[in-house]
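ok new one. same drill as before - structure tokens go in, u give me an amino acid for every spot. 64 of them this time. try not to just spam alanines like last time pls lmao
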């Protein structure tokens, strides 16, 4: 898991874009707390699809 401070992210954004592309995500920390996640476009699509599958499974009627 990659973690960058907000200052590191600001000063080296291209580097963290490359990391997100190759490793999927970078967490952004500010004042010692995780405040954001930079996620690759490819991972965001699979994340969204997996989330929707989870919601669909959660909403299925067990009586059917």
């Amino acid at each position: 898991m990659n973690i960058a401070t907000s200052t590191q992210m600001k000063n080296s954004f291209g580097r963290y874009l490359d990391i997100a592309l190759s490793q999927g995500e970078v967490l952004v920390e500010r004042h010692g707390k995780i405040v954001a996640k930079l996620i690759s476009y490819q991972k965001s699509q699979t994340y969204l699809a997996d989330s929707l599958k989870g919601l669909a499974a959660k909403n299925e009627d067990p009586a059917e």
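The chain has three helices and three strands. and btw The chain has one domain: 2-58.
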